[in-house]
Design goal:
Length: 243
């Protein structure tokens, strides 16, 4: 399933006239055992992706943009609840490369995606038709398994407070300020009433909105591009989700 920044890009539309800045990587969330992820890695490698020497949870591919070549990455992710001893990273594949230090031995890993098991349990995703230019430069259409807006907000409810995740605030506001905002909020409230882990995630967001509203507003405003809104983003989100 595709997670992260592609959710607001492909699903979102803001009534406030905002434009999403897009994203330059792809987060792929798996819900199965290591063998499934191993098979997916082999398919990526067969299609021209290469392993990252620095970040073992990433696969890389060089693509041309205009007259330049850029390297884009795919991040492999797993739910924290998927393993009995959840850690930030899980070993997926041994690459068979010798190292004098076992902990430095090159491997393929996946990175922990916290509180994401419910995305699969409650089917917080669907297939979305995407039309784009493929790696061969030809027009292509396919259906992509993409998490829904409620899952995206849950995934960012805690990380939004991190200094390096300023865009998370905009993603949350962008989705909730769109034509589906009321529907998304209703779904989150329903999930929160039924699942303690959802309630806990949303409480992280609620606390940040109350205690650091100025920071949330500032992070959202970084992407306004000369737009203005009548209600502060933090207040808008707080009243929509928690009133």
């Amino acid at each position: 399933m595709i997670a992260g920044g592609w959710v607001p890009v492909l699903r979102g539309r803001s009534d406030a006239g905002l434009r999403h800045p897009g994203t330059r990587d792809v987060d792929v969330l798996f819900n199965d055992d290591r063998e499934t992820i191993r098979n997916a890695v082999q398919l990526f490698l067969a299609s021209g992706f290469v392993l990252s020497a620095k970040h073992e949870f990433q696969l890389l591919k060089a693509l041309s943009v205009g007259s330049r070549k850029f390297v884009f990455n795919i991040d492999l992710m797993h739910p924290a609840e998927a393993f009995t001893q959840p850690e930030m990273f899980q070993d997926i594949m041994d690459l068979g490369i010798r190292s004098d230090y076992d902990e430095m031995k090159p491997k393929v890993k996946s990175i922990c995606f916290r509180s994401s098991a419910i995305i699969f349990q409650q089917n917080l995703w669907s297939r979305v038709k995407v039309a784009a230019t493929n790696f061969s430069g030809k027009h292509s259409e396919c259906y992509v398994p993409l998490m829904d807006e409620s899952a995206l907000i849950l995934s960012k409810a805690d990380s939004v407070k991190q200094d390096k995740r300023a865009r998370d605030a905009f993603d949350i506001y962008f989705l909730l300020s769109g034509p589906e905002g009321q529907k998304i909020a209703k779904k989150l409230k329903s999930l929160s009433a039924s699942f303690p882990q959802v309630s806990m995630q949303l409480e992280h967001l609620h606390k940040f909105l109350k205690e650091h509203s100025n920071q949330f507003d500032k992070n959202v405003a970084n992407y306004f591009t000369h737009k203005s809104v009548a209600v502060e983003p933090s207040r808008y989100v707080r009243e929509l989700l928690f009133s």
